[in-house]
TrEMBL record:
One of its GO terms (molecular function) is monooxygenase activity. Pfam families: ydhR (PF08803). The keyword Electron transport does not apply. The keyword Nucleotidyltransferase does not apply. It comes from the Bacteria. This is Monooxygenase. NCBIfam families: PRK11118.1 (NF008333). Keywords: Monooxygenase, Oxidoreductase. PANTHER family: MONOOXYGENASE YDHR-RELATED (PTHR39169:SF1), PTHR39169.
């Protein structure tokens, strides 16, 4: 069963194409994380909210990544991180064309 990790926090930027350029190495490194399947990057420049929706193969790998990511963000001065882990209802997700079955 796959698991969703939902993360968001405040950041002053960059956003859009600048964010894509500045964080492309980070994005590539996430591909190497144990149990990682995919991520959607989220941003709202009007409210300075950024984050992502991640899919991991197991709850344990999602928790391990969250622990590492939270520590990385803390080193950057970001300590107010909202995060939740959810299991995926595969049957309903399949009906609504979700890419995880």
């Amino acid at each position: 069963m796959a698991y969703v990790l939902q993360v968001d926090f405040k950041m002053d930027g960059p956003f859009g194409d600048e964010m894509a350029e500045e964080f492309s190495d980070l994005a590539k490194s996430i591909n190497e994380e144990e149990g990682f399947m995919w991520k959607i990057w989220t941003e709202n420049q009007e409210t300075n909210d950024v984050g992502g929706i991640y899919i991991f193969k197991t709850k344990e790998t999602a928790e391990k990544y969250l622990d590492m990511h939270s520590k990385r963000l803390a080193r950057l001065g970001i300590e107010d991180v909202n995060a939740k882990i959810f299991s995926i209802n595969s049957k309903l997700t399949e009906i609504t064309k979700g890419p995880i079955i």
